Give the backbone structure.
Amino acid sequence: MKISLSKINKDKESFHFTEENQEFSERLSDILGKAKFEIQLEVTELGEAIEAKGHFKAKPLLECSFCAEDYPYSLSFDFQEYLFPEEAKRAAKLSGDEEVHIKKADLENKNGNDVSVIGDEFLFLDYIYDKVGFHIPFQVPCKDKKEYCENYTSIQSKIEAYKAPEEVSENPFAALKSLKVDKKH
């Protein structure tokens, strides 16, 4: 979904997206599966900058990294971006495809959020896809720690029971001890 920044007025524009939106559902399905999600987005013009902020909430089924069981994961985060459309780029004498990140501390509000100089369109679907991907944990236990995953401890005990005893290999040079060298030559 693209939001045209040149059409944003000084009033807040609000957007609400759920899994019923086919475009969002298809794009987020590889991360969230068929989980229900809700996205709130407010876009406001702040002089030369445009503020895009909102909230994302979903409860996808993730696979435990230790026992491979599915479990519901609660995913909820806020996001906030400050965008400078093409006109601000021209004023800053930047070339066409350049993207510049400035800290929000350079603006009046000074909260440390990123600011992006972009074209006239905000690719919100790509933006939220990246944000969701960053908020999904890499190695997820179904409990707080793998030691508390009941399935993991039972699986580990079964694996330990099936482990074959280690074979002690002989020293590969032991065969050389039995060789006799004929010193006649």
